[in-house]
User: Fold Aminopeptidase N from Alteromonas pelagimontana.
Amino acid sequence: MAKRILALFTGLALLGGCTAHGNSQTVKAESKKELSTAYTLKSGGDIEPLQKNLTISHADLSFSFDFDSEILFGLTALTLHSDTQQQGLSVDLDTRFAIEKLWVNDTLLPPSKYSNSDGQVFIAQDQLFTFPATLKIQYSGHPRTPIRAPWDGGVMWEKTPSGAPWLATAVQGEGCDLFWPCIDQPFGEPATVDLRITVPKGLVAASNGKLVEVIKKEDADTFHWQTVSLHNTYGIALNIAPYEVMTTEFTSIYGNHFPITYYHLPGDTKQIKALFDELPQMITFFERMIGPYPFGEEKVGIVQTPHLGMEHQTINAYGNDYKKDEYGYDWLMQHEFSHEWFGNQLTNDDWDHMWLHEGLGSYMQPLYAQYLHGDLAYMSSLNNQRKGIINQHPIVSNKRLKEEDVYENGPGLDIYYKGSWVMHTLRYLIGDDAFFRSVKEIVYGTPAPKPGNFSPVFKNTQDFIDIVNRNTGQDLDWFFDVYLYHAPLPKLLVTRTDTSVTFAWQTDSGLPFPMPLEVSVNGKVHTLDLSSPQQLPITPIDTVIADPASKVLRYEQRYVDFKEYEALKKKKLAEKK
Assistant:
């Protein structure tokens, strides 16, 4: 999904997996009676007491629509589990919706037994709730309309070029509660989901998982979709339009088979097929580099949307108008597809660790450029990312954070670009064997994944550090301390005289940083142990290049100067207008 500063993302041939709210813009554009509450507009953060011990084994979601009035009708049944009894229940749902009926264990409750004043539905009863328990909610209303999806979350009620309805959901920043009752936390993922989406004749509903059946009625069709593994909450997606379908059966390098399906509007068949034909090579790349496609029991799914894109599990949103970048592939589709591994198979257990989604996912683009075209494309792609690193906040705070804390009050784009460069430097430091083994293990929970021997996992930064330390047999906490838990980059101090050149690292607060450094002297590369300053003998005519292969992420004044130049140029252009 794209996050703020689209011009920068497009220019760097990168798109992140998340959206920027632009909440202040949205609030100004909406009437007060339609405002979503602050509680609804947050995702993650502190866990509500009545939700702390709950898990969802199954979500049964039914949707129908009044397209003329832009009304969504929903019926959600959640199967809830907890190890302890509790006096009440709560789930999240935007107050824009009117709750028409609510049942607990098939018992219809009177309105006096539940409330939804701020976006959290509270349910009380006279005796303790025991589990498993089924909570069913029937509701309807006009869902939040995004001002600029996918940066701003909600339900889009658009029209296709032919004038047909074109509906799409995009809710990562604000969460699943924008259109279905859920627990808007990473741990709120339902283990399985059934989606029943009823649409007028002539429209197609594309969603997550496998298409079980299409129930045809006189004037409407119901598309029944089903997932069979833990499902990212904001990844539940509705996509409705007069779609045409392109599909093929893919044979994985692991020997299993699954469908690749693209739901697209009628259009340029040549462009549509060109995009579709990119997918097999992308899948094979990820399987060779990381491991098996995680959702082979369902499908690889792409759907054309009126917004730019988002990583909806098994039905990735795509709206990039069939653009290819300088490396010859559709960078947006590749990045969103990377989130099937980094975000959907591996889910951070708190928004604070979103770099595990976005940094690892962003590193897949230089890696894919290298896979396709070699080292020149790899370094070019990395350099494009390097221009966007900000270094104003640590990538990880080790605090429980809301999504907006990460993007608007925290590291923001650094979870993408800096996260990618951290992975690049780590790969240099520990070597490909330990690096890719560690990535596999954090993604799958095993360093030897095969279809059928893994399921989605929840992990955090410390889990990754522990895995890297174990696979290298070293204590590399110093590496992650400097790069993830502190904002300033290490500086390389170089002192040259006529007879010697000395190298030393300088870090924020004097943090230890024994990063080895390659130095080329007249083409001969020396590897220095910089746990303390090191000196090399030279003559005045020697050519000395520090880090000649650009392996180490470090402070470089040229990037600061470039940003200042770009800002000044932008200011002058604005003044001319």
Notes: Residues 2-33 have pLDDT under 50 and may be disordered.
